[in-house]
Amino acid sequence: MFVANPDPFLLPSFRISPFRTQDMAFNNHLDNDGFATDYFDNRFAKKHWQYTYNGREAIAIALAHYQLKPNDVVTILTTSQNFYISSCVTSTIAQFCQWNREITPDTKVILVNHEFGYPYAGMDALVATGIPIIEDCCTTFFSQDDQSKVGKYGDYAVYSFPKFFPIQIGGLIVSNKKPIDSPAKLTTTQVAYLDKVLSHHLKNETQLLDERRQNFNYAVGLFAQQGFSERFETNEKIVPSALLLNNHANVKDLNQLKVFLNAHGIQNSVFYGEDAFFLPTHQNLNPADYDYFWNCINRLLQSKI
Q1: Where do runs of H (alpha helix) occur along the chain?
Q2: 188 Cβ neighbours under 8 A, 6+ residues apart
Q3: First and final CA of the chain: distance in angstroms?
Q4: How much helix, strand and coil, in percent to the nearest 5, is found in the chain?
Q5: CA dist list (Å): 67 to 7, 95, 115, 252, 305
Q6: How does strand 276-279 pair with strand 243-246?
Q7: Structural contact between residues 105 and 129, judged by C-beta atoms closer than 8 angstroms
Q8: pLDDT tens-digit series, residues 225-278
Q9: CA-to-CA distance for 191 and 146, rounded, in angstroms?
Q10: Pick the residue with more confidence: 5 or 169?
């Protein structure tokens, strides 16, 4: 049994991020053995990566290298090429110049958003244009394409740790051409915190990925019973950052679904521009949590909203 309408102060909390309140104490007591530093030195070139406070700061550091003028344009391309794009991306670009959604003669930089953990399919063609590329890998930390080059096509790649780890801050900027020389706005204590928390979880990467895949597969099967389907095709190289589902007109008003689920403690959103929506999927969920999601959506469907 799931309680449908508890006191608002007793609502559960299911985030897109795997971070939970209990992780505050757990993270605080971790020791740092330097594993994360070695991990990033091996995955990327030494001194070619740097922690940032979040993904937005990583994007800003990358953009600052191009000396953009106010009338210059950064073209944003996404995996789906739907018009949906996070304001975290657009507001950061707006600090430097204009942005649009298709390459024009005014395009000075291309920012490729590998959406929800699904790589953009046309990277080789973008590289061939000769226009500088920033890869937004904030939701694609573990995913790869068939060439295993995601994050390596552009001048820079940027990442966001809370999308995949139970951590409250943290991003990463990687330069594929030269060492990073722009300091981030992190204190020594914050850097040490990032390093110790990431060290713990990266050492357990295999288990983390297995748990994410098991949860994702369970959820896809469960929601298929309600007539929903995966928005993107998933394979063994894809590690989604969220469960993105085609609605197929099952829910008549996705904005009402968004409000309804938020009111039941489930972070979610509409994939605006399409008949689709997304829910949490990560290693700190379990089948019972997805059963609760299913129960909430089913009650909404039965109410014919």
Answers
A1: 22-28, 35-43, 55-64, 87-94, 123-128, 188-203, 205-224, 254-263, 287-302
A2: none
A3: 23
A4: 35, 15, 50
A5: 52, 12, 26, 46, 50
A6: antiparallel
A7: no
A8: 999 999 999 999 999 999 999 999 999 999 999 999 999 999 999 999 999 999
A9: 33
A10: 169
